[in-house]
Design the sequence.
């Protein structure tokens, strides 16, 4: 696979909402193939700091960083470490930040990374260096714990059947490959009307668990928002309901869109702090028909954006 061969989902929309300006400082929190970072740097003579937990992504970005004459710096690390990474780089404020959540095309298309059930490979699923592999999880966790992960992180209705089948099979032989696990899942989960592979939800759940993705997202949103200067924008593209729910809730709270008390309750002084952000997207932006047709992975994508308000 050639570096930078994949075009990120909703890239035009994401960069438009970010609105890069000359002399400003931006964060690409999920560098991946560098698509967003490149477009931001081409849109304005600005500075971009990029983070990716995948050492392969950082290595791919080296040539790109050299092409932009010091305007791009790439760091290996988690998005939950934004304050530490940028602090060590001397960055105290941002004029914008963008996140393209979930697994990258580079990771899912490489059988050796073990993310996909469509190609046989080691049952790995690690985005970075330090996590336990998916094989370690399915070969060691208790049946009820596995079922909870499949249900909560994959929204798999047959989670208990899948967990029971995994535990029964590993008693005979440990899981080592993606095709091995996918075969066991397919033996107990029937295809549904959606047409997706029966292994899809369980593989999603394992990937999220291996990389602690939801906790990472919550930390990243809070830290990036805390660094935004007045007028600074936060743009996030998510790919499944669990991610989008976190983003939607965080944005609503930041913009003061929390639910009001009942009108029948006793009148009390409103002690809520004035909102620090305004929503730029009242509803999520989704890919058009053309993009969805070209890239099936784009179909579930949702973009949300907000801006820090100027405080007198």
Sequence:
């Amino acid at each position: 696979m050639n570096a930078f061969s994949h075009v990120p989902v909703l890239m035009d929309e994401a960069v438009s909402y970010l609105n890069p300006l000359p002399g400003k400082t931006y964060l690409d929190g999920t560098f991946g193939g560098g698509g967003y970072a490149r477009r931001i740097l081409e849109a304005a003579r600005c500075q971009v700091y990029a983070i990716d937990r995948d050492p392969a992504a950082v290595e791919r970005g080296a040539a790109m960083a050299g092409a932009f004459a010091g305007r791009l710096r790439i760091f290996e690390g988690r998005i939950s470490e934004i304050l530490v990474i940028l602090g060590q780089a001397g960055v105290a404020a941002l004029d914008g930040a963008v996140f393209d959540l979930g697994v990258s095309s580079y990771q899912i298309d490489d059988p050796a990374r073990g993310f996909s059930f469509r190609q046989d490979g080691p049952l790995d699923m690690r985005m970075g260096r330090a996590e336990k592999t998916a094989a370690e999880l399915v070969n060691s966790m208790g049946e009820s714990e596995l079922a909870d992960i499949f249900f909560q992180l994959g929204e798999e209705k047959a989670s208990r059947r899948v967990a029971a089948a995994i535990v029964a099979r590993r008693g005979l032989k440990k899981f080592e490959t993606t095709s091995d696990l996918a075969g066991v899942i397919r033996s107990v989960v029937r295809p549904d009307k959606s047409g997706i592979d029966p292994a899809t939800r369980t593989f999603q759940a394992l990937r999220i668990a291996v990389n602690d993705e939801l906790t990472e997202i919550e930390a990243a949103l809070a830290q990036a928002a805390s660094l935004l200067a007045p007028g600074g924008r936060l743009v996030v593209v998510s790919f499944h309901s669990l991610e989008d729910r976190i983003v939607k809730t965080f944005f609503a709270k930041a913009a003061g869109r929390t639910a009001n008390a009942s009108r029948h309750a006793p009148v009390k002084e409103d002690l809520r702090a004035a909102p620090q952000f305004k929503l730029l997207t009242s509803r999520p932006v989704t890919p058009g028909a053309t993009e969805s047709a070209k890239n099936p992975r784009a179909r579930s994508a949702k973009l949300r954006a907000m801006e820090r308000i100027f405080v007198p």
